[in-house]
Amino acid sequence: MEQVELRELKTRLSHYLRRVRAGRRIQVIDRGKIVAELVPPPVLATNIKVPPKLAEMSRRGLVRLGGPNDPRLYPRLPPLAPAGTAQRLLDEERGER
Question: What is the pLDDT of residues 19-33, one digit of tens each?
Fold first, then answer.
């Protein structure tokens, strides 16, 4: 990852922003310590429908949109009750109709 001293960044800000826009990540160093990191904004998938107001808030930096849901992240849990339990309980609750 590229690093730049704060003074150099202030002097050549446009240069470094072009590098970030091209996909580079840049760490900002002040007095020998990393104080910030410049990263490109996240790319949204084009097939995600975002309400216009929410998209505008994201462009203004007021909210950060999450990525698409990935079902592989959620393990399949075993059933808590045998099949038909809900129907049986509803029938008992309703009684004869």
Answer: 998 888 999 999 999
DSSP lists the bridge partners of residue 30 as 33
Q: Do 8 and 15 meet the contact criterion of CB atoms below 8 Å apart?
A: no
Enter the tokens of residue 60. Answer: 């203004």
Q: Kindly state the tokens that stand for 4.
A: 């730049």
Could you please state the CATH topology (level 3) that the domain comprising 1-42 is classified under.
YefM-like fold (3.40.1620)
| Tokens (6 digits) for 30 | 């002040």
pTM attached to this predicted model: 0.47
Rounded-to-integer distance, Cα 78 and Cα 42, Å: 35
Q: CA 16, CA 62: separation in Å to the nearest integer?
A: 24
pLDDT tens for each residue of 43-71: 655 556 888 898 888 877 788 887 777 88
Task: Please state, in angstroms and rounded to a whole number, the distance separating the CA atoms of residues 38 and 10.
Answer: 13
